[in-house]
Design goal:
The protein is α+β, with helices and mostly antiparallel strands. It contains one helix and four strands, in the order H-E-E-E-E.
């Protein structure tokens, strides 16, 4: 089970990084990123990240 959670988290971080790179290259867009009911948070320095709660 732990391996599945690690794989899921690795996939999540991968996609957040990809979306961060896209957002930084595409000007003028309106973005909303979420996983199920949890909205990702935009940080100008770090990019997309999941809330810490």
């Amino acid at each position: 089970m732990t391996d599945q959670i690690e794989d899921l988290l690795n996939d999540l971080f991968h996609w957040l990084k990809c979306l961060t790179e896209i957002r930084r290259k595409v000007d003028g867009g309106e973005w909303h990123v979420h996983l199920d009911d949890i909205d990702a948070v935009w940080d100008d320095e770090l990019g997309w990240k999941m809330p810490e709660n």
